[in-house]
Amino acid sequence: MIHTLPELAARLGRGQRLLGLDVGTKTVGMAVSDPNFVVASPIGTLKRTKFTQDARELSRTLRDYGIGGLVIGLPLNMDGSEGPRAESTRAFAKNLMERSDLLGWDAEIAFWDERLSTSAVERFMIGEADMTRKRRDEVVDKMAAAYILQGALDALAHIRRQEREQRERDEDDSDIGGESGGGDA
Predict the structure, then answer these.
(1) In the prediction, which pLDDT does 14 show?
(2) If we measure between CA atoms, which residue out of 79, 14, 95, 185 comes closest to residue 87?
(3) Domain YqgF/RNase H-like: where (predicted)?
(4) Which residues pair with 41 in a beta bridge?
(5) Residue 19 neighbours by CB under 8 Å, 6+ apart
(6) H helices within the chain, ranges in order?
(7) What is the pTM of this model?
(8) 22, 46 in Cβ contact below 8 A?
(9) Pick the residue with more confidence: 134 or 62?
(10) CB 134 within 8 A of CB 112
(11) How far apart are alpha carbons 142 and 59 in whole angstroms?
(12) Options 3.40.50.720, 1.20.1070.10, 3.30.465.10, 3.30.420.140; which CATH number does 2-176 get?
């Protein structure tokens, strides 16, 4: 099922994690969150073959890491529209939902705007990490997945902080409104 990010997080069981995916035509980069949804860590790259084989490999990752939901990077165009790459990513997610039997899990999915994620990761690896081209090619997909997932985790933390602050304001308002006028008559 496709959710908003807060809906997805609310559906997760205690201790479950999120798996971030950077879906490409040849590979799928993967990153996992910690159970508190604070940090994304790259865990690997899945070389794409047939969908059934990809789903089985993904199933192992879901089981091994206690995954409760997927955050899939959606490659939007710079103007926010969806092009062929976004359509392909949505088709991949749809296949996961339709073939939950292969996953052994009902796919709970949220999309996250991944515009320029790979470019940002490559710039970092060239400028800051000074990686060779060969090494960059080996890690770029899983690093992009971590970048995507970290963006989603940061947004989720911001949303939760706003919700908590709103609850506190509401409680303060009810405390003020609920006090008796008191005083001597």
Answers:
(1) 85
(2) 95
(3) 16-121
(4) 32
(5) 30, 31, 32, 33, 61, 62, 65, 67, 69, 70, 71, 149
(6) 5-11, 51-65, 84-98, 100-103, 117-127, 133-178
(7) 0.80
(8) no
(9) 62
(10) no
(11) 17
(12) 3.30.420.140
pLDDT at 180 over 80: no
Res 154 pLDDT > 60: yes
Alpha helices in 18-132 (DSSP H): 51-65, 84-98, 100-103, 117-127
Question: What is the phi/psi pair of residue 51, to 5°?
Answer: -60, -40
Separation between Cα atoms, residue 122 and residue 114, nearest integer Å: 14
If we measure between CA atoms, which residue out of 44, 27, 12 comes closest to residue 152? 12
- Computed over every residue of the chain, the mean pLDDT equals 85
Domain assignments of the chain as residue spans, ordered by start: 2-176
Radius of gyration of the chain (CA): 20
- At residue 10, the pLDDT reads 86
